[in-house]
């Protein structure tokens, strides 16, 4: 491991504190989206420490090792999944954001990490002016082609000032699943302050730490996700940067996420009831003290051991097992549980950029679903966040006697007999 590409966290990116509780360490794990070309051996594949700590002051859950974004996103193969679940979710986001911003037709909606522009297209349909910002040039180009103006840049205070000059202030700045990827939150929030209209809203969607802990979604821990947030923690963060938490919605996507909105601390939007309720719940349920996180680590180790045993037993019984969805989560799951080519014959994935490559660390071939000639007996569902949609779509496979292993919160096998109930 070349140490110059890793920065070890000292002070908390939310509150500046330095009192950390060690939560869990997974040892060294390769990058979640570091899919490789098939080869005889992989001597140059790097693995980096994957370890989570909790700030005893603001209860931010953070990775200890921050991999240089230039390295992390160099081979970025993530594109927003073209799934019914996601399309519907994006419409929900438009509706929820509209509660606050819909009163201003023609208002500017800026999205940070706009990927290929799907979410902004949904905003465009409602008559909003839109602008995407995403450093991935290949994705920004696709978005542009689809009619979504997109800047291929990193968002920060410098860029925000330029955007405000050229396009005016934004009534909504949206960041869906980008906030957890950002190390320097202060500069991004300075950018938000520079670009947001006085009565505008900054709305982020992040995986909810309470859901991750309760449902043991340990595989959502990978190097791209530097932070795992409670509402209390976000509230602390916003307050330190002149903003006020206004509203929060719990969402089912990605194993449980929250859509959290903030406005200027001296702006017109008050703090909603639901914000207080969730903050109270977090305190009452123990999320502001060590115990919950110790217990999380114990339960994760148990689930991992169970899953490994289950899959190995199936293989020992002569069952053919493959992975379904070569997700980023799958990289953590397979590497941490020690499941590889001995257990999984292949992984199917709909993303063209991943097909023909092998999975990071475990080197399982990734194939297009339609290229599978002999379906396995069971699929390990590595894209479990789409479980409902996938089980529905794979009804024929289930009816023919196939099964799915659902890894979290507790490894379970779903077969046609059960799902047809
Ligand atoms: P995603 O849910 O975006 O999660 P992560 O952030 O963990 O990568 O990724 C799901 C992966 O699964 C993605 O590579 C696309 C793939 N996929 C399928 O192969 N089939 C499907 O039906 C769906 C919904 C996703
Ligand atoms: Zn902190």
From TrEMBL:
Domain C-methyltransferase residue range list: 253-409
InterPro entries linked to this entry: Methyltransf_Zn-bd_dom_put, Methyltransf_Zn-bd_dom_put_sf, MeTrfase_14, SAM-dependent_MTases_sf
GO molecular function, one term: methyltransferase activity
SUPFAM superfamilies listed in its UniProt record: S-adenosyl-L-methionine-dependent methyltransferases
Domain Methyltransferase putative zinc binding: 12-73
Any one biological process term the GO annotation gives: methylation
Keywords recorded for this protein, A-Z: Methyltransferase, Transferase
UniProt protein name: Class I SAM-dependent methyltransferase
Species this chain originates from: Streptomyces zingiberis
């Amino acid at each position: 491991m070349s140490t110059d590409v890793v920065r070890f966290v000292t002070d908390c990116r939310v509150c500046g504190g330095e009192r950390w509780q060690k939560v869990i360490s997974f040892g060294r794990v390769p990058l979640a989206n570091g899919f490789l070309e098939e080869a005889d051996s992989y001597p140059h594949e790097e693995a980096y420490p994957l370890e989570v700590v909790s700030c005893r002051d603001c209860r931010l859950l953070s990775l200890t090792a921050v991999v240089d974004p230039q390295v992390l996103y160099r081979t970025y193969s993530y594109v927003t999944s073209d799934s019914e679940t996601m399309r519907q979710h994006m419409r929900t986001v438009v509706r929820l954001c509209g509660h606050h911003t819909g009163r201003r037709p023609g208002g500017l909606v800026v999205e940070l990490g706009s990927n290929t522009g799907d979410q902004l297209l949904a905003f465009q349909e409602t008559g909003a002016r839109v602008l995407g910002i995403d450093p991935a040039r290949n994705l920004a180009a696709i978005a542009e082609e689809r009619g979504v103006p997109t800047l291929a840049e990193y968002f920060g205070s410098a860029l925000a000032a330029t955007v405000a000059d050229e396009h005016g202030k934004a009534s909504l700045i949206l960041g869906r699943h980008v906030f957890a990827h950002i190390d320097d939150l202060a500069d991004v929030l300075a950018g938000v302050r520079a670009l947001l209209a006085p009565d505008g809203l900054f709305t982020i969607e992040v995986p909810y730490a309470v859901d991750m802990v309760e449902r043991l979604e340990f595989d959502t821990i990978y190097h791209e996700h530097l932070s795992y947030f409670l509402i209390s923690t976000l509230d602390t963060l916003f307050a330190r940067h002149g903003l006020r938490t206004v509203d929060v919605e719990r969402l089912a996507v990605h194993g449980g996420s929250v859509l959290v909105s903030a406005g200027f601390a001296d702006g017109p939007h008050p703090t909603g009831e639901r914000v207080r309720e969730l903050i109270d719940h977090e305190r009452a349920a123990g999320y502001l003290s060590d115990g919950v996180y110790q217990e999380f680590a114990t339960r994760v180790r148990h689930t991992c051991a169970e899953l490994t045993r289950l899959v190995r037993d199936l293989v020992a019984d002569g069952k053919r097992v493959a992975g379904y969805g070569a997700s980023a989560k799958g990289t953590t799951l397979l590497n941490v549980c020690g499941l590889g080519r001995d257990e999984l014959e292949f992984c199917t994935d709909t993303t063209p950029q991943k097909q023909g490559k092998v999975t990071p660390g475990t080197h399982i071939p990734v194939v297009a679903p339609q290229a599978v000639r002999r379906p396995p007996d069971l699929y390990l569902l590595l894209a479990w966040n789409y479980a409902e949609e996938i089980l529905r779509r794979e009804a024929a496979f289930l009816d023919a006697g196939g099964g799915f292993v659902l890894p979290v919160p507790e490894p379970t096998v779903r077969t046609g007999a059960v799902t047809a109930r």
